[in-house]
User: Which sequence fits this backbone?
């Protein structure tokens, strides 16, 4: 097993004349928390969307876990082991918290229509396992007491947690979090930090897109900085923090 | 506690069963026409629950559902009538009808995968009309559907020598044709209710609901939205096909007139009015929208005669008037439907 989990090779994407990504190459190693930062409009989310199949890159591609990623099929990305959350939370609003996580098990389970109709042994067992695992995950992100509430009725912080639980339900090798701390206060951010750290300790590689530089620098093993769609630097936080180009990008030269 | 509950629910089930068995005989007191009305109510429950899979679970607004009903009805009519001289048994035709409707479901589904909401509604509406117009015009150059005249003398449902048409004596009880169909329809309706219930709380059902709630998020957790939408269309269509087959056999006659746009709208209204995605709500919607107009039809005319001594308003036009008013009122005061699904709190927090 090689040390690199995800490798981006010269990924390019443009929208009309706007070059959102200019040949971005970077690599994420197994077991690390990898931060992707950059000013607004730097192309962080575009990179994310290319990787998870929401966008088709105009050039380059991704290698994940030793094999290329199919470009145009988000549901296959999940099957391969990439799970994501969204910058603007996307939960299944009118389903309960528990059901949201249960949906996350879809890609790791197999019951079909006939199984559902005839309720054979295998289907019942699988269903019980889905429910058990979903409850465990709600417990893991510490919102087990909200299991029966509709997702839309959860507080903002709990919705973020629920989205992470749903992503974890797909058993990802790489968990991608798109600005998970957006709109959180200091206490909530602290709790989130613990949660992310715990996820990594339990063996999942984490890719973190974040605006909160303090959170990124404190949490990540390595950080990549994007600016105007191009990679500025990819290194450990201590080096990135001191890099002149990064300071310029953030403060304006 | 739980024992008490189960014995109570068992009692409730028995009571409902007794009522359902007694229903066709009670209805017959008002004449066989009422038994037929009850039969149609059940047929519409069946149709509405089929559509509920597409609209209620998967959230795909389908205004052409009646096309599948028509396909099923014509499949039955062509394979069991003097029109082609074919008289296949119903238990062979019904699955064929379901399969043909299913193919049509996929045919409609595949080009519309990327559409949603209003756009999907327009395309499905067009599809429904296309099917009806085909039925209307496929009498030349080769006479397949017999055009607007429709197909007559369709075989009734027969199991062995037991025919569902005409009156028979069973255990000293006299059963009329409609009463026999009642029990057939009831069996089918119970079957479709069970299928709906089981799908709702299954991996597939949850995936459909996820697509309904947020398609992008559904894809992100690994749901193959294309296949699952097609599956919803195919399943909904198959139910439509089966309903069409039974309709054909029960009426003994089909013509394109029975499959107009207003039928699609009525079936959709049953689902929406009752409570989308909630099985008891959908059943309530179907029963209300089939039985109430008939009550009006039979009640309003005589009532006017008694009150004013003459007919002021034609019952038929009053029916549409009241139907429209009812729709507006429900949408204003109960936008989630008459009997929407509860938040299912108890059910999910209790079980582990």
Assistant:
């Amino acid at each position: 097993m090689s040390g690199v989990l995800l490798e981006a090779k010269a990924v390019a994407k443009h929208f009309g004349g706007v070059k959102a990504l200019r040949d971005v190459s970077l690599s994420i190693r197994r077991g690390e928390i990898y931060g992707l930062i950059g000013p607004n409009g730097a192309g962080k989310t575009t990179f994310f969307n290319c990787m998870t199949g929401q966008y088709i890159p105009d050039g380059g591609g991704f290698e994940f876990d030793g094999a290329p990623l199919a470009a145009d099929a988000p549901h296959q990305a999940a099957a391969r082991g990439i799970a994501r959350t969204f910058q603007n939370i996307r939960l299944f609003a009118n389903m309960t918290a528990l059901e949201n996580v249960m949906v996350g098990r879809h890609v790791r389970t197999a019951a079909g229509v006939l199984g559902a109709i005839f309720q054979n042994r295998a289907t019942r067992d699988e269903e019980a396992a889905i429910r058990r695992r979903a409850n465990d995950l709600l417990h893991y992100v510490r919102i087990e007491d909200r299991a029966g509430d509709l997702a839309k009725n959860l507080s903002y912080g709990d919705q973020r947690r629920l989205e992470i639980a749903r992503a974890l339900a797909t058993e990802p090798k790489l968990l991608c979090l798109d600005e998970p701390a957006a709109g959180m206060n200091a206490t909530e951010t602290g709790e989130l930090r613990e949660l992310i750290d715990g996820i990594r300790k339990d063996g999942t590689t984490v890719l973190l897109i974040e605006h909160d530089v303090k959170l990124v620098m404190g949490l990540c093993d390595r950080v990549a900085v994007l600016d105007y769609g191009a990679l500025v630097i990819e290194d450990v936080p201590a080096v990135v923090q001191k890099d002149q180009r990064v300071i310029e990008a953030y403060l304006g030269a | 506690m739980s024992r008490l509950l189960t014995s109570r629910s068992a009692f409730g089930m028995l009571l409902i069963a007794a009522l359902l068995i007694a229903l066709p005989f009670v209805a017959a007191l008002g004449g066989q026409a009422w038994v037929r009305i009850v039969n149609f109510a059940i047929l519409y429950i069946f149709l509405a629950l089929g559509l509920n899979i597409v609209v209620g679970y998967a959230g795909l607004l389908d205004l052409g559902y009646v096309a599948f009903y028509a396909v099923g009805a014509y499949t039955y009519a062509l394979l069991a009538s003097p029109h082609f001289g074919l008289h296949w048994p119903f238990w062979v035709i019904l699955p064929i009808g379901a399969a043909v409707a299913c193919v049509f479901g996929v045919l409609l589904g595949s080009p519309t995968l990327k559409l949603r909401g209003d756009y999907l509604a327009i395309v499905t509406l067009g599809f429904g009309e296309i099917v009806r117009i085909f039925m209307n015009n496929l009498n030349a150059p080769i006479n397949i559907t017999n055009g607007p005249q429709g197909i007559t003398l369709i075989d009734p449902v027969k199991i062995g020598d037991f025919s569902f048409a005409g009156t028979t004596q069973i255990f000293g009880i006299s059963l009329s044709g409609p009463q026999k169909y009642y029990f057939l329809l009831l069996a089918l309706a119970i079957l479709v209710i069970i299928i709906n219930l089981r799908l709702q709380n299954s991996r597939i059902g949850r995936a459909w609901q996820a697509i309904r709630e947020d398609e992008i998020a559904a894809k992100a957790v690994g749901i193959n939205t294309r296949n699952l939408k097609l599956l919803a269309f195919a399943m909904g269509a198959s139910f439509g096909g089966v309903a069409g087959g039974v309709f054909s056999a029960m009426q003994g006659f089909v013509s394109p007139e029975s499959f107009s746009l207003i039928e699609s709208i009525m079936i959709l209204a049953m689902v929406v009015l009752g409570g989308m995605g909630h099985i008891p709500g959908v059943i309530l919607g179907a029963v209300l929208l089939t039985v109430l107009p008939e009550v009006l039809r039979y009640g309003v005319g005589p009532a006017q005669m008694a009150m004013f001594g003459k007919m002021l308003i034609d019952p038929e036009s009053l029916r549409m008037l009241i139907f429209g008013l009812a729709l507006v009122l429900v949408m204003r005061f109960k936008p989630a439907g008459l009997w929407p699904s509860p938040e299912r709190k108890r059910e999910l927090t209790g079980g582990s």
Remarks:
- Residues 121-140 of chain A form the longest helix (20 residues).
